[in-house]
Amino acid sequence: MGDAMNDDVMNGVVSGASATPRPVDPHLNIPTSALFRSLHQASGTFAMFGHQNETSNVIGTNTDSDVHAVTGTYPALWGSDLSGVERDETTNIDGFSMSDVRAELLRAYSMGAVTTMSWHSANPITFGGYGHNMAPGSVAAVLPGGARHGQFLEWLDRVAAFLDSVVDEASGESVPIIFRPFHEHTGDWFWWCTGSPAQPTDTTPEQFIALWRMTVDYLRDVRGLHNVLYAYSPDRSRIDMSSESTCEAGYLYAYPGDDYVDVLGFDDYWDIAPADIEAEQPHERHDDLITMLTVVGRLARERGKIAAATEVGSPGEFASQYVMSVEDKAALSGADCGACGAGGDGCFADSDGDVTGCDSCATSDSDCCGSGADGAGCDAGMAAVCAAELSEPIAATGPTGLPESGGLPGQTESTCPAESSRPSEPFGLSGLSDPVESSDPVEPAESSESSDPVEPAEPADPSDPVEPSDLAESSDLSDLSDVQSESDSPWTHYLLTAALANSDTRRVLWYMPWRNDPGAAGTGAYGTPVAGSKYAADFRRFTEHPFIRMANTLPPLY
């Protein structure tokens, strides 16, 4: 990278420090500003489960959601795609009408969930879609002075019009959307890709940065779009994992700068569900996943950003081969909490609201927040949720769908002190100062660090459901029990242990598998287990762990 880029990447960042969060857009509308604050306040206390095309791509019968069929609830984060909008088409790349996409986003928002959108746009020169998306000079063509610059601004006009059209009828405000343009730029399968230092494309890092900044400036300043948070998401497969420093350098390759990014995300199929499972070692991949989560979580902490696993592979056969370490088992139980202070690691409340895994604070007579109003004597996750600035109750009312008396699953009464004295405002709203101005169809499941992405299958017809037995080893629904073994627990033993590994991994605020497309069955790009399939019981256990949030266990975020 050039000197100017290094200045942008390292501007004002001191290793280990925590920056004050400031949004890319200092003029966010009311719900988006509230979401920005809430997500920052939540960082380190829980992680949201997300899913692409949640109610659009459904495999099971007699249900509008495969996730709901297994867990009894919906994801905390719902993803959709904008592709097709740029060319004024009525359907997106997955074959769904944009009116249906809008309705799905509004449904998610109405239940208190978070919404996010990617943009698999057509190539601006050839108009080729996924699998035919690359062409020399594509980024140069859309930058100022390029032959397709005017056309690209028209594309951005249509993107802005759609993002602004997702309006909550009750408030009249455009719904907050986490927009993830130009994702996986470190690969070589999209027209905006720079590749990696070891495998560059004809797009330079400087050109990618100019493309990103031009897009943000146009949407925010020219089109006046103020309901968007911007997410950066390189592809993990092309990042050098030799050390944490090479991981960081690869992650920040062509980084647009802190003034242009709200969310530090990454897309990782490689570490969770590699295509060639015989050639990979689960423990090595698990270690690399922890390294990625640690680096992204730390950078988010240091730069005042939100950390996220913006796309992840679906834990399955490969991940099920992983055998947990003593540290993993301690992380799952919360037993690595040390002194169990409010700033310590580990320790979680179980479904009854009782702290587990830490004898010093899980006494039969103590509540989850111990005796201190600041959470002293409580675990890191529950202290922040229960008592961080006593900003609001866990129990959610209104659109989140939680019972008025409950918070965590199965919790019948509050475990937090002074609940009646806390204001009923969005989660963490009192914890940050007001913002101030500051100067795939199916995603690729790489078979090796230098391989091309797998060609996607044609989108399935949602009206032609596929039986669960066609997608995975199936069993009776009675398999949804609490009995588990190493071989059928890839969600909890592999993915969840990585999420809980340390204080920086716990800052990664969501994990989003891709859509439930039958054409991707058996690959890492497939989404979530369907009812009756081999890993459904473990998937339910994953979503019910106290660290994981679903739509019905989210605190108010807006």
TrEMBL record:
Keyword check for Metal-binding: no
Gene Ontology molecular function terms on file: mannan endo-1,4-beta-mannosidase activity
SUPFAM superfamilies linked: (Trans)glycosidases
Keyword Hydrolase: yes
Domain GH26 stretches: 30-552
Active site: residue positions: E184 (proton donor), E311 (nucleophile)
Alphabetically ordered keywords of this record: Glycosidase, Hydrolase
Domain of life (superkingdom): Bacteria
Residues in coiled coil: none
Biased composition (Polar residues): 411-423
InterPro entries membership: GH, GH26_dom, Glyco_hydro_26
GO biological process terms held by the UniProt record: substituted mannan metabolic process
Low complexity: compositionally biased ranges: 468-489
PROSITE patterns: GH26
Disordered as annotated region, ranges: 397-489
The family this protein is said to belong to: Belongs to the glycosyl hydrolase 26 family.
Protein name, entry field: Beta-mannosidase
Natural source organism: Bifidobacterium erythrocebi
